[in-house]
Amino acid sequence: MKKSSIIALLISAALMASALAGCGKEIESSVPDVSVTTTETTKATTTETTTAATTTTAATTTTAATTTTAATTKATTAATTKAPAATTKAAAATTAATTKAPAATTAATTAVQLAKDATANKYVYNTLNDEEKTVYNEIVAAVKARQATCTFSSPHDGALVTKIYRDVFFQEAELFWLQGSASTYTGSVSSIPLEYKYTEADQAVIQKDLDGAVSQIAATFPANASLVTKIKKIHDWIILKTAFTKENHSADDAYGPLVLGYGQCEGYAKAFTYVCTKLGIENVRITGLNNHNLSHAWNKVKINGAWYNVDLTWDDPTGNTPDYIRDFYLLVPDSQINGLSHFVVEEYTPFTPPVANSLDANYFVQTGYYATTYDSAISLMQQQIINAAKSKSQIAQVKCSSKEIYDAVNNYLVNQAGVLGMKDKANATKGCNQIKGVSGASDPNLLVVAIKLSY
C-alpha cells in the first residue's frame, strides 16, 4: 500500500488556527452591553451586518505545546471481527470449541451495540457514510490509545481523511487531549500523525477535574428538571465560573472554563459541549466568524427533535461584574443570528450544521417572558424589573415576537420618563432592593429588550 504524501499546509489562522486550536482572534466579547444612562438618549445595542463568509484574516497559527507519546497500543477491535471464523471450522472442531462460538458471536454483537449506543447522540458522526464512519472510528480509537500515528485498516482519499479528522475534533468533546491540526492530506492516505495537547499524566488529572465539574453542574438540576432547565443551569454555571481571556494555555478547551475559570469563545463552546455530551444532551460545536470578521465559536443543541443555537460567550459580555448573566443567546433560531451576528463558514465547520428554525424551547418562551403585544411587553418588563430588584439581579429582559413590538417597547424604555417610572415602581415595591441606575442593553436582531440595573 502506498502511503500518502502529507502536505502540512497550515491554512491561515482565519481558516484553521481558530477552528482547530482556539478562537485566537475573537475580540473581547464582540457585543458589549450598551452603558448609557437614561439621562441621555439611550441607543439599542446593534450589530454590524457584514458579508464576512468569504473573508479570511491573517494571523499567527496557534500551536499548543504538544507531547510525544510512546504509547503505540492499537485499538483491539479485531477481536470482535474474528468470531465468525471460529464457526467456519465446525467439521474439525471439538465439542468444546463449538460451544464457544456463540459466546464469541454474542460478544461481537454486544460490542457493535455499545458502539451504536455511544454514537446515537453524535450529530456529526451520524451525517457520515460507512467509509467515513470507519475512518472516524479508527481515529477515535487511536486517540483514546494515545497512539502517535493512526494507521487505517485500508487507504483512503486524503480529502476524506482531512475532513473526518476535523469532524472528530469538532464532535468528540471527550477527547480534550487531542491537539487540533490544520494539516491537509492528498493522494491515498494510509496513516496520519497524532499530537496531544496534554501529557498522559496531565490527561488523567484533567479528566478527573472535568468530570468533577460535570457532577457539580448536574447537582444544580432540580428534581424532574426539563431539558431547557438543565441547559439553562449548564449555561449559567459556566458563565459564572468563567472570565474571558485569550492568554492562557487552556483558554481554548473545556478545562479552562470548567476547572480553571477562564476561557475564550472556543473554550466556552467546548465546555458547553463537553458537559452536554457527558449528560446525554445531543449537541454540536460550530465555528465561524462574527460580525467583525473575527473567528468565533458557539453551539447548537437538540431539544425534542428541534435544534437551537446557544452562545455562552456572548451571554457573558465583558465590562460587567462576574455575576452578570443574560439569556439573549440561549436557545435561539438561525434566523436571528445567521448572517447577522454569526456567520457559518464551510472551511471552519467541515460538516453541514443542523438547521435551527424553532422558537418552542427558547428560554424566554419557556419562562413566559415572551411578548406578543406591546402592552404585554411593557407589563412583562415591569414585572422583570421588580423580580430583578428582589434578587438584586443586574438585568431585566423580555423577548418580543416582532420587530414592530421591539421597536415600540425599546423607544418607550429609552425615553427617560418610561424607564424611570418603572424603576420608581420597583423601588416602591415591598422586598425590592433599591435600584440606583438603569441603562439600555437591548438587541434588535434577537428582539430582546433589556435594561441593566445597578443598586
Question: Could you characterize the architecture of this molecule?
Answer:
This protein is an alpha+beta fold and 455 residues long. 38% of the residues lie in helices and 15% in strands. The protein has helices at residues 13-21, 78-81, 83-87, 95-119, 130-144, 158-171, 200-218, 227-241, 255-260, 265-278, 363-367, 374-391, 403-414, 416-427, and strands at 6-7, 149-157, 184-185, 188-193, 243-244, 262-263, 283-290, 295-303, 306-310, 330-332, 342-344, 370-371, 395-400, 437-440, 448-454. A five-stranded antiparallel β-sheet has the order 10-9-8-7-11. Strands 12-13-15-14 form a four-stranded mixed β-sheet. The protein has a two-stranded antiparallel sheet with strand order 1-3. Helix 12 links the parallel strand 12 (370-371) and strand 13. The radius of gyration is 25 Å and the shape is elongated. The relative contact order is 0.14.
Secondary structure layout plus pairing:
Blueprint: E1 6-7, H1 13-21, H2 78-81, H3 83-87, H4 95-119, H5 130-144, E2 149-157, H6 158-171, E3 184-185, E4 188-193, H7 200-218, H8 227-241, E5 243-244, H9 255-260, E6 262-263, H10 265-278, E7 283-290, E8 295-303, E9 306-310, E10 330-332, E11 342-344, H11 363-367, E12 370-371, H12 374-391, E13 395-400, H13 403-414, H14 416-427, E14 437-440, E15 448-454
Parallel strand pairs: 5-6, 12-13
Antiparallel strand pairs: 1-3, 2-4, 7-8, 7-11, 8-9, 9-10, 13-15, 14-15
Helix pairs in contact: 5-6, 8-10, 12-14
